Amino acid sequence: MKPNKSSAPAPTGKSASLLYNPTFRSVVFQIIAVLALIFFFYSIVNNALTNLDARGIATGFGFLDQEAGFGIGLTLIEYDETYSYGRTFFIGLLNTALVSFLGIILATVVGFSMGIARLSSNWLVSRLAAVYIEIFRNIPLLLQIFFWYFAVLQALPSPRQSMSLGEAIFLNVRGLYFPAPVMEAGSGIVIASFVIGIIATILISIWASNKQKLTGQQTPMGRIVLLLCVVLPVVVYFLMGSPISAQYPELKGFNFKGGISIIPELAALLLALSIYTAAFIAEIVRSGINAVSHGQTEAAMSLGLPRSRTLKLVVIPQALRIIIPPLTSQYLNLTKNSSLAMAIGYPDLVSVFAGTTLNQTGQAIEIIAMTMAVYLTLSLLTSALMNIYNRKVALVER
Asked: What residues have CB less than 8 Å from 363, skipping those under 6 apart?
């Protein structure tokens, strides 16, 4: 007795090969998913624009050319009330980038220091690092921002009773004031010598690293850095007749004038972001170091390397392969957490653009979309740079 066969004809030819090709089907399904996603967002945006038009609310980006009419406490580029809303966007963007960049540097330095201190053989150092980590990573970041701003910085004396270091640096409730450089003719050559020194140091460092891998011989980079980045610019400075002077802050009326000032909002936000994120980085560093086989440390010490050089040359390079991925996440968190600046009035992107500008113009969709795009771009850029570094330090298998 013959088995029953399906009456439907099986696909044949080229169509059959495409139908059962996993690559072809995956591409088709992805195209369908992307088209569905585009249609979904198009429907949402179109519906929102229709509702706004029905209410008589203008849409588009024409508002960026309108006069802003409000002041901003901290600006890295020229600005006054007559500038446009487009200018306020760039000022908020630069202020956000400033606190994020400085916060990443400080958090990395403090985090690595505390992570290494957490593993110290000295009981007191280890316990103090543990106390720091457990305190600051378990208190909400917003409360830490309030603590530094209201409990610490707002408790400083008034400008007339400023805390001073000599006659150059002053600290009071209005901020930190210190001398500003005044550039004169020939200052560009001094700056160029400093930049050349940095570039030369980087090139020599790469050469020294390759030399050490091939021969095992180390180059005294400390002396080279001192010579190229300090001695060279100082010599050029005096040869050019001291073309860079200083403008000192002076108390005039109820506040200081001249020099460079750091507003308390920036200081509070920077301290809170750095200290909070550093507590998490410290645990990442500790776990990364612990993940390196103890046999590596014993082998290095058996060759006569002191603990400091063992940590620098043997342990840390191997631990970085474990540390970098979670470290990237902490950098992204710090950048996004900077949006909490609105709570204390620091003029970042959210406060200046998504706050004041939005309230004055009512262009909610455009402003929020631009703000989201900025944070997305900053996060993707940070991830890209960290991924490049991660590939550089990754273990290459042969």
From this structure: 58, 59, 61, 63
b/e per residue 150-188 (b: at least 16 CB within 10 A) = eeebeebeebeebeeeeeebbbbebbbbbbeeeeeeebe
- pTM check: above 0.90: no
Helix (H) or strand (E) holding 262: strand 260-262
The C-alpha angle 134, 140, 143, rounded to 5 degrees, equals: 115
DSSP codes, 82-94? TSBHHHHHHHHHH
Alpha-carbon gap, residue 179 to 247, rounded angstroms = 5
Q: pLDDT tens digit string along 132-149?
A: 999 999 999 999 999 999
How far apart are the C-alpha atoms of 275 and 272, rounded to whole Å? Answer: 5
Alpha-carbon distance of 338 to 178, in angstroms, equals 25
Q: Contact at 8 Å (CB) between 172 and 255?
A: no
Give the contacts of 393 (CB within 8 A, at least 6 positions apart).
Answer: 317, 320, 321, 324
Nearest residue to 276 (alpha-carbon basis) of 109, 127, 107, 113: 107
Separation CA 329–CA 374 (nearest Å): 17
Using alpha carbons, select from 93, 174, 5 the residue that is nearest to residue 377.
93
Residue type, 131: V
- 167 residue type, one letter: E
How far, in Å, CA of 151 to CA of 144, rounded? 10
178 φ/ψ angles, rounded to the nearest 5 degrees = -150, 165
- Tokens 């930049």 belong to residue: 195
Structure tokens at 168: 């150059």
DSSP conformation letters of 17-83: HHHT-HHHHHHHHHHHHHHHHHHHHHHHHHHHHHHHHHTT---SSGGGGSB-----S--SS---TTS
For residue range 139-177, list pLDDT tens digits in order. 999 999 999 999 999 888 988 888 888 788 888 898 889
The letter for the amino acid at 102 is L
Output the furthest CA–CA distance in the chain (Å, rounded). 111
